[in-house]
Design goal:
The protein has 287 residues and is α/β, with parallel strands linked by helices. The protein is 39% helix and 19% strand. It has a seven-stranded mixed sheet, sandwiched between helices. Helix 3 crosses helix 4.
Length: 287
């Protein structure tokens, strides 16, 4: 699961609402050489609206096919990838992402959980990747990583790439943003810069696109309000606490502005933007 707002925002598989305050100030923090810079995403287990209950269900369902190879595209720190590997002792995995800090977190976690010899976290682009085919392909909140096109035009190409990268008989887990209902003009005006109703499809069209790309949907589920609120709160919680205790810090003003802007955006896409978790089966060619 990658950074959720593209390029590093909140809603997986979505257009970019805003960069998180802690990430946006990271370069400035390094420049001022402060040891007490804003923390980054420490409260999040998954970089998306995903509960422990749903994660457990997903892992059990995906592990039932006993995949030997797992490819996680836009993996972030790869928590879901690591859980699949724990559930399937003979499986090996590769996580691909461009965020070096997240990849280092994934490598640390793999080492702590005794998985370092079965997983590789690689810092590279997923566009045109040659790392498939794999028995299981994870792409949660990261379809934009598979195409150079802008959302939502990228989605058809991304789905085609996922079909290319999954082995016949395998599975794809796609986490993708969609509109729960058509957004109003007022809601769009408060979301990410340049937000439009065309930025996402509805769930029905999302499923149609998956079928057109050569899949059948085995399982369809969507993040609920509680998962979203836990994610959005956890996304900023450490930075909010830091800001409350560092009001005079050189990075405080920029951090405050970004936190406030992101919260404002969340309040406008809350209940409008959804995230679908689609377990997809590739259609094999007739003999």
């Amino acid at each position: 699961m990658t950074d959720a707002h593209a390029p590093d925002a909140t809603a997986p598989g979505t257009h970019a609402p805003d960069a998180p305050a802690s990430d946006a100030t990271a370069t400035d923090a390094a420049a001022t050489d402060t040891a007490d810079a804003p923390p980054r995403l420490g409260r999040l287990v998954f970089h998306g609206p995903l509960s422990e209950r749903r994660a457990g269900d997903l892992v059990r369902r995906l592990a039932a096919g006993a995949p030997r190879t797992v490819l996680d595209l836009g993996c972030g720190w790869g928590e879901l990838l690591l859980r699949v590997l724990e559930a399937v002792p003979r499986a090996h995995g590769v996580g691909v992402d461009l965020n070096g800090e997240d990849l280092r977190r994934g490598r640390r976690a793999a080492g702590e959980r005794g998985l370092a010899d079965r997983v590789a976290f690689v810092e590279e682009s997923a566009v045109g990747t040659r790392r498939g085919p794999a028995d299981l392909v994870l792409c949660v909140g990261a379809s934009q990583a598979l195409s150079a096109r802008q959302p939502p035009a990228h989605l058809g190409e991304a789905l085609g790439e996922l079909r290319r990268l999954v082995a016949d008989g395998g599975r794809v887990l796609l986490g993708e943003g969609f509109w729960e209902r058509p957004p109003t003009e007022r809601e769009l005006a408060g979301m990410w810069p340049g937000a439009s109703a065309g930025d996402h499809h509805d769930l029905s069209r999302l499923l149609d696109l998956a079928v057109e790309a050569g899949f059948r949907p085995e399982w369809v589920e969507t993040a609920d309000r509680g998962e979203w609120e836990a994610f959005e709160s956890g996304y900023q919680a450490d930075t909010e606490v830091w800001l409350a205790t560092h009001p005079g810090h050189p990075l405080a003003a920029a951090t405050r502005e970004r936190l406030d802007r992101h919260r404002h955006q969340w309040m406008h896409y809350r209940g409008v933007l959804g995230l679908a978790y689609l377990t997809l089966v590739p259609v094999t060619a007739s003999p």
